[in-house]
Design a protein that fits this description.
There is one protein chain. With about 625 residues, this protein is an alpha+beta fold. The protein contains 19 helices and 20 strands. Strands 13, 14, 15, 16, 17, 18, 19 and 20 form an eight-stranded antiparallel beta sheet that branches. A hairpin with a 4-residue loop joins strand 8 and strand 9. Helix 3 packs across helix 12.
């Protein structure tokens, strides 16, 4: 291209500038022709708190339920979100009790009845509850006396089992099994990170100065005692005074509720693979000409083809719903079990995160404004989590994915590259090749003290004694290898029909939620590294979005892909963007595929930015003694 490098990094004399940090770009001094690799205010989606807040605004841009791809996440410093978290924590605790009961664990029937009553209430509409004479005091109406009973059941008692973790059996034949409740420190980073489960305990330190995906802080806040119940300050004696019959269920009696792939609400329909098939797609009309990119551009119609499939089922209550919690005080044994089975089945049909909720109620806490995994830990103890509200840092708490898909018994995450060249109209480029990062040792949810099981980033894995001879070379795979593995193990082309199409939709939706918040500028672009996970039911989940992801040649996989993606990035931001409209269709963009670009920019009144539609009010004060009007004088 005839370019040369200006080695003075603070110089204003440049045509293109690529920096790791956005603050190193003089946004207020840029000329119109200068190209830079960061937008201003980019932290709206790359910081944990920013992404958590903006994800809830997605409904304003696209009629999509974000809970289908974004695990529940709350900002603990915001009082309203803290209240929502408390309700969700209690509800998942009740849900976990029912799952364990159906999985054959010994559970006091009184506790099961209370858990069933609470879960059935969630299936009802507010109008139904009021019609039945109930009082709506909280989101799900979990009363204090109900929570006293529920929290007396210690989920930590069931952490010693080693479940079958093969992708085939976990996805189809088992109730979810979660990790141990031991405190961990996860390899999570605002700039770049490992998987959701890239973790380390306070006893297992990671001391590495390399610039790979994540580092782990030496200090882990808080602790979790597996021998204690979750906030169990209620003596179980109160429960045992009631009927204390212990019920054990045979495993095969729950087969009809533990086949999630048959009942889970799909993120994508089976016929939505058109955006990855190698075929010519329609040309996109623009206001200035006609573009055609690689003849593989995903159209807006393709992206919206399965809109109906990603909706949460309507709350269409039936007589069966009404009967689930009737006469709960008298039913026992098989009848109680049948009702619990029906309830969990309906949860799977209506609530997309029922699978990842698992049975241990584990949450990940991440501090805002910190990178390289500092201050991140995992806990299922309510008090430990809520105490982080007092921290000087903003903390977000995200639901831990308790049913991850494993490959060769190893946990993994997916690193996907995405390029944004304009925020209005939102222009997204999707890199067709990505890679997987694995832990070195076999995944074992009962052992969180071993960093080589849970950390997927190369900075940690390369220090393992058997790294050079590990079953998966370099603990990384090309996406093509993963695709072939899925075909061999499942007999289905799940990568092209399910996982990659889901990733494309997640990318588009996650960027749409913040398109009003980031300062747009022509000739600016942003290169993102998406971290995603796949659960045992082959659903894809967004973990976080990283700005300036690692570009190290750390393994044979990254050595090949990094060289390709950097070259292809220049093809898009320089060759394609600077070409005339008549010549754009002839410009190669390498492996980048134009994923999304509306035909026209969106004009929005600035007065609507950050507009809150919440209702606020003050309590009325009533005088103890009524004030009577004075009688008129005669």
């Amino acid at each position: 291209r005839g370019w040369y490098e200006n080695k003075e990094k603070d110089s204003y004399c440049f045509d293109l500038k690529w920096t790791v940090k956005a603050r190193d770009i003089p946004h207020d001094k840029l000329t119109e022709r200068q190209i830079v690799n960061h937008f201003d205010k980019n932290t709206e989606i790359t910081r944990k708190v920013g992404l958590s807040n903006n994800m809830k605004k997605l409904i304003w841009h696209n009629n999509v339920n974000y809970e289908q791809f974004w695990p529940k996440c709350y900002n603990l410093t915001a009082d309203d979100e803290l209240s929502d978290f408390l309700e969700e924590y209690k509800m998942i605790h009740a849900e976990s009790i029912l799952k364990l009961y159906l999985d054959g664990e010994s559970v006091n029937e009184r506790i099961v009845r209370v858990a069933l009553k609470v879960c059935c209430r969630k299936l009802k509409s507010i109008d139904q509850i009021l019609d039945e004479g109930g009082v709506i005091t909280t989101n799900y109406g979990i009363l204090e006396n109900e929570w006293e009973v529920l929290k007396s059941f210690n989920l930590g008692r069931f952490m010693t089992k080693d479940p079958d973790l093969s992708s085939k059996s976990r996805g189809r034949n088992s109730v979810e099994n979660g990790p141990d409740l031991e405190m961990i420190d996860e390899g999570d980073d605002d700039n770049d990170s490992g998987a959701e489960t890239s973790s380390n305990t306070s006893e297992e330190k990671v001391d590495d100065d390399s610039d790979d995906d994540a580092d782990v802080d030496d200090n882990v806040d808080g602790d979790v005692d597996d021998d204690e119940p979750v906030d169990n300050d209620v003596n179980e004696r109160n429960v045992n005074q009631e009927e204390s019959t212990q019920v054990t269920v045979e495993k095969d009696q729950t087969k009809d509720i533990v086949s999630p792939r048959k009942t889970a609400v799909p993120l994508l329909s089976d016929d939505s693979s058109s955006d990855t098939d190698e075929k010519d797609v329609e040309k996109e009309d623009t206001t200035e000409g006609v573009e055609k990119v690689n003849t593989e551009k995903t159209t807006e119609n393709d992206l919206q083809s399965s809109t109906t499939e990603i909706r949460v089922a309507e709350n269409d209550e039936t007589d069966e719903d009404l009967a689930l919690d009737s006469n709960l005080g008298t039913i026992t044994g098989s009848e109680l079990r049948d009702r619990a089975r029906q309830c969990i089945r309906k949860f799977r049909e209506r609530f997309p995160q029922t699978g990842i909720n698992g049975t241990r109620n584990i949450w990940i806490l991440k501090p805002g404004g910190k990178s390289r995994g500092r201050g991140i830990f995992c806990s299922n103890k309510l008090k430990t989590i809520v105490d982080k509200k007092k921290s000087k840092n903003e903390y977000v708490v995200m639901k831990y994915i308790e049913n991850p898909l494993t490959v060769h018994r190893k946990k993994f995450d997916i690193r996907q590259w995405v390029l944004v060249t304009d925020w209005n109209p939102l222009t997204i480029w999707f890199y067709k090749r990505c890679y997987l990062r694995f832990g070195v040792e076999d995944y074992n949810p009962t052992d969180l003290s071993n960093k080589f099981i849970h950390l997927t980033n190369n900075a940690v894995a390369q220090h393992h004694d058997k790294f050079d001879n590990s079953e998966i070379e370099g603990s990384m795979w090309h996406s093509e290898v993963f695709s072939e593995h899925l075909k061999e193990t499942t007999g289905e082309d799940l990568w092209n029909t399910t996982i990659q199409p889901a990733i494309k939709k997640i990318v588009m939706w996650s960027l749409q939620c913040a398109q009003d918040m980031i300062s747009n500028r022509k000739n600016s672009f942003e290169f993102y590294g998406y971290d995603l996970m796949v659960d045992a039911d082959y659903n894809t989940w967004l973990i976080e979005i990283n700005s300036s992801p690692s570009m190290d040649y750390s393994t044979p996989v990254t050595k090949t892909l990094v060289k390709e993606v950097l070259e292809d990035t220049m093809k898009v931001v320089v060759d394609y963007n600077l070409a005339s409209w008549k010549k754009k269709s002839k410009v190669s963009t390498g492996e980048f595929q134009l994923l999304h670009k509306p035909r026209h920019p969106v004009e929005k009144p600035k007065t609507s930015y950050g507009l809150s539609l919440g209702l606020e009010g003050k309590a009325m004060k009533v005088s103890k003694k009524p004030v009577l009007p004075k009688s008129p004088r005669p």
